Amino acid sequence: MTTTTFFLFLIPVLGIILLLVNLILSPHNPYQEKDSAFECGFHSFLGQNRTQFSISFFIFALLFLLFDLEILLIYPYVVSAYTNGIYGLLIMIVFFLVLTLGFAFELGKNALKIESRQVFNFNIKS
Amino acid sequence: MISIISIIEGLLLIVPALLSVAFVTIAERKTMASMQRRLGPNAVGYYGLLQAFADALKLLLKEYVAPTQANIILFFIGPMITLIFSLLGYLVVPFDSGIFVSDYSLGMLYMLAVSSLSTYGSLRSTAQLISYELILSSVIILIILLTGNLNIITIVESQRIVDFILPLFPLFIIFFIGSIAETNRAPFDLAEAESELVSGFMTEHSASVFVFFFLAEYASIILICILNSILFFGGYLCIIPVEFIIDILYNIFGINSSILEDIFVNISSSPLNLAFKTALLIFVFI
C-alpha cells in the first residue's frame, strides 16, 4: 500500500473518529422544541422547509454544469496543443460551434426565462 | 501491507494542515477583533494562541442536535464529505523540489476535482459554486496551455525564469476573485450571509458536525491559497534572487565565501518559500 492510498483511507477514518468521539462523549437529551427547525420567534410549521422551487432554476444550474464539462473536455486538447497544430484547433472550433449553436437555440426557445410574478411596469397592463 | 513510512508520511502531511487551519482561524478572529477595536481571544495560552484547540475540544463534547425534519444520514454525511475532500487536496501539493507525497501526472485535474467537490450547501451555495468553478477551470486551462503539462511540479518548474503573475496578471485577478467566491469569503459570502441568514447552511449544525464544516472551510481556504501561489507565484521557487545577490557580493564587495553561498542556496530552496507566499495570500483573504 503506497502513501497515496493510505492517505485516501486516513482522512475518512479521521472524520469518522471525530464523529464517534462526539457521539459517545456528549450528552444527548432532545425535546421537541430543540429538535424543531430553527426559526426566530415562533413555532415552526411542519414540512415548511421542503418547499418546491421553479424548474427553471434547475435548468440554469444544469447549463452551468454543462459548460463546466465542456471546459473539462478542452483539457486534453490544451495539454497536447503544441503537437496537434491546426487540425486539433479546427476540431475544437467545430466542438465550440456545436455547443454555441445549442446554447443559442436554447436562448431562442426562451427556455432560460424565469417566470416572475412581479409586475415591473404598472402603467402597461398585459 | 501498510509500511510505517507511509503512515508517517500521511500524518506528516495531515497534522500540519490541521494545525495551520487552527492558526488561521485564530488569525482571522484576531484581525477582525482589532478592526472592531476589541481584544479578541486572549485568555487561552499566550496571546490567545491556543484558543482554537480549546474551541475544538469544547465543540467535540457538546450535544448534537438533529432536526426532526432532516434526513439524518445526509445531515451527518454532508459535513464529513466536505471535510474529506478539502483535506484530500493536500495530497498533490509539492512543498519543495523533491518533497512531495505523490507525483501525479494528472495532479492539476485531481486538484480541480477535489476542490469542486469540497463545498456543499444549500441552494445558494450550489448556485455560487457551479458558476465560479467555471472561471477557475478556464483560467487553469490557460496556464496549462503555457506549460503543456498537467503535472503540478512541472507547472512550478516552468516558472523558474519568471513567475506567471508577470505575463498573466489579468488572469491572476480573475483567478483570485474566483477563488474568493469559491471559498465563500467576505464579498461573496451569500451562502453564509451573516446579516440576513443567521449562519446560512450551518445554522442547524452543532457539535462535531459544525467542527467539520469549520475545518473544511478553512482547509479549503488554505488549499486554494496554495493553489494560487503554485499557479501564479511559482510555488516553492525562491523569492530572493540568490544568484544576483551572490554576484553583487562577489563583484562589488569582493566576498567569495562558499559558506555564504551554501547558506543562500539552503534558504532559497526550502518549503518556507511556499509557506511565505501562501501566508501572504491568506492574509489578503482575511
Distance between the termini of chain B: 43 Å
How many helices of chain B? 11
Describe the biggest sheet of chain A?
A: none
Portion of residues in beta strands of chain A equals under 5%
Can you tell me the overall shape of chain B? globular
How confident overall, as mean pLDDT of chain B?
Answer: 75
Helix content of chain A: 55-70%
The DSSP helix count of chain A reads 4
Total E-strand runs of chain A? 0
Determine the oligomeric state from the structure: heterodimer
Note the run of SSEs of chain B as H and E: HHHHHHHHHHH
Q: Which pair of chains forms the biggest interface, and how many residues does each contribute?
A: A-B, 49 and 54 residues
- Helicity range of chain B: 55-70%
Give a short account of the largest sheet of chain B.
none
Mean pLDDT across residues of chain A = 76
CA-atom Rg of chain A in angstroms: 26 Å
Work out the count of structural domains of chain B: 1
Structural class of chain A comes to mainly alpha
Query: DSSP strand (E) fraction of chain B?
Result: under 5%
Describe, in plain words, how this protein is organized in 3D.
The complex is a heterodimer of chains A (126) and B (286). Chain A has 126 residues and is an all-alpha fold. Chain A has a domain at 50-112. Chain A has four helices and no strands. In chain A, helix 3 (55-79) runs antiparallel to helix 4. The termini of chain A are far apart. With 286 residues, chain B is mostly helical. Chain B has one domain (4-236, 271-285). Chain B has eleven helices and no strands. Chain B has helices at residues 4-35, 51-60, 72-88, 107-117, 123-147, 152-157, 169-182, 207-232, 242-251, 258-268, 272-285. In chain B, helix 2 packs across helix 8 (207-232). Chains A and B meet through helix 1, helix 2 and helix 3 of A and helix 1, helix 3, helix 5 and helix 8 of B.
